[in-house]
Design brief:
This protein is α+β, with helices and mostly antiparallel strands. 38% of the residues lie in helices and 35% in strands. The protein has helices spanning 18-27, 42-50, 55-65, and strands spanning 2-6, 11-16, 32-34, 37-41, 70-77.
C-alpha cells in the first residue's frame, strides 16, 4: 500500500494501491515537483476522472482538496 499525504498540512489523506499511484503519476506527470510530490488542482482531478481514473481515488482527492484551488500531494511507499 501507498500512503498519500497533503504536503501543505502534513495530513495523511489515505492509502492507495500501487496501481492507483501509477495512474496518478501518468496523469499528473506535468505537475510533478519531484519523484514523490505532485501539485494537484481541481482541473487535474477532473482530467483524471475524464480519463477513467478510479472513483475511490478521485473522491479521496476531491475531499482532500476541499475549497482550495490546488494542493501539494506526496506519497510514501510502505
Amino acid at each position: 500500500m501507498v500512503r498519500i499525504y497533503d504536503n501543505d498540512n502534513e495530513t495523511e489523506i489515505g492509502t492507495i494501491t500501487e496501481a492507483q499511484l501509477d495512474r496518478i503519476q501518468e496523469e499528473l506527470i506535468e505537475e510533478s515537483i519531484d519523484a514523490y510530490t505532485f501539485d494537484v488542482s481541481g482541473a487535474a482531478i477532473d482530467s483524471l476522472e475524464m480519463n477513467g481514473g478510479d472513483q475511490t481515488l478521485i473522491a479521496m482527492l476531491r475531499r482532500a482538496l476541499g475549497a482550495r484551488s490546488s494542493m501539494e500531494l506526496r506519497f510514501d511507499l510502505d
